[in-house]
Design a protein that fits this description.
α6 (about 85-105) packs antiparallel against α7 (about 110-125). It is built from ten helices and two strands. The longest helix has 19 residues, at about 85-105. The radius of gyration is 20 Å and the shape is globular. The chain has a domain at about 35-160. By secondary structure, it is an all-alpha fold.
Length: about 190
């Protein structure tokens, strides 16, 4: 009986409501988005989190280069050129890195430093012209990725987290798994 009722409710929902929940339609998009991100990243290993953080940092800060120079920039700099909305969107993407750090058990100090980097990038990046130049030079996502790497490396040294360098990851992917081996769970 309850399954049929749930199916009727699901059929009555729009595609947006099905994807983001009914809170999206009622003006609670922040809560629905937070639930979506939490559920999307649930069950990820520390290595998967770190890989996603590295990907986001590379896309946002270092994806493109100026030919003939060592100068690199990313989507953060490009989207920052859109007045108002660009810096808000890039800051929201940057907060995914902070979310991964929080899920990895980073200390309050590390999270505060990461939020400070995102805040500075947002506030200074919002200033016309000066902010656009600042976005090309200040790499908040790369800094936050390094902070997460430092946090995970510190815990790997204690033996509570295992992070493999890229060459060992490739070897492990081709190896047969050890029975009973698993990643430590988050407390």
């Amino acid at each position: 009986m309850w399954v049929a009722q749930d199916l009727r409710e699901l059929e009555a929902m729009s595609s947006t409501e099905q994807t983001f929940g009914r809170g999206w339609q009622r003006g609670r998009s922040g809560a629905a988005t937070a639930d979506f991100i939490r559920d999307f990243t649930a069950g990820m290993t520390h290595e998967q989190r770190l890989n996603q953080v590295r990907f986001i940092a590379r896309m946002m800060d270092d994806q493109f280069s100026v030919p003939g120079t060592n100068f690199r920039f990313g989507c953060d700099s490009i989207l920052g050129l859109v007045p108002g909305l660009g810096d808000a969107v890039t800051s929201a993407i940057s907060l995914v890195i902070v979310h991964h750090a929080w899920q990895s058990g980073a200390s309050s100090l590390t999270l505060a430093r990461m939020l400070g980097n995102v805040g500075v990038d947002f506030l200074v990046g919002s200033v016309p012209l000066v902010g656009d130049l600042f976005d090309f030079a200040f790499k908040a996502n790369r800094k936050n990725a390094r902070l997460l790497e430092a946090h995970l490396s510190k815990h790997a040294a204690k033996g509570t987290v295992e992070i493999l360098p890229p060459e060992r990851r490739a070897r492990r992917a081709n190896a047969t798994p050890t029975p009973g081996a698993r990643w430590p769970r988050r407390r």
